[in-house]
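Technical note accompanying the year-one report. For the benefit of new consortium partners, we illustrate the data format agreed upon in the data management plan: each record pairs a sequence with a structure-token string. No post-processing was applied to the example shown here.
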Amino acid sequence: MNIQTTAATYAIETRNLNVYYGDFHAVKDVNLRIHKNKITALIGPSGCGKSTVLRCFNRMNDLIPSARIEGDVLFHGKNIYDPDVDPVQVRRRIGMVFQKPNPFPKSIYDNVAWGAKINGFKGDLDALVQESLERAALWNEVKDKLDASGYSLSGGQQQRLCIARALAVKPDIILMDEPTSALDPIASLRIEELMWELAQDVTIIVVTHNMQQAARVSDYTAFFTVTPDRTGYMEEFGETPQIFTTPASKITEDYITGRFG
């Protein structure tokens, strides 16, 4: 079944989201509303379920045999875990950029064009590739070497190539899992600037361990932590300035100020 574009209030919404890996309860009762065309950061200590929740938003956890999802993840008012929803279609609409740049073993051009081709794109492929690379702030650096391997680029350029690849299929949402952790500070700053630019057109959800980055780039922040038995849960969610200056929870305050985590 197709997911129809509707005037939903939020880009994505979870209701009582629980994730299990076999018998292990990894994430408990997450209720989260992601605002459209904003940047939302997911922060918290290692093992608190940030990346697990992120992967729920485009059904990447389906690829883990032991994973089981309970609750709803609503996208345009439709639960993406309903049996009539095709996860491949979900991933077309909700793209993902991973921690380590992962260009395909193809040319720069084919890296960007690949998703559009397999989805049956019938328009001007050259124009789409150029537009996607421009939106990823990479066009001027690669326009004269589109036939070169994606592997020939620097780490920061490879990550922007992966962003261009995600943009080429015209997603509504881009998920980013620690997108700058493998990059140097200058390349990281360029990715952050790019996120601000892209948020004019797409919704961005980013997992980061970098508190300064979360404070700089995001409009909203969700803080996750863990119970004594290592089950992750969302402790607090709000506008980023509020979370970082006047958090409602003592646990949130302790994490942000470096007392634990």
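Partners are asked to follow this layout when depositing records. Strands lie at 12-21, 24-34, 39-43, 67-75, 78-79, 94-97, 173-177, 203-207, 220-226, 232-239.
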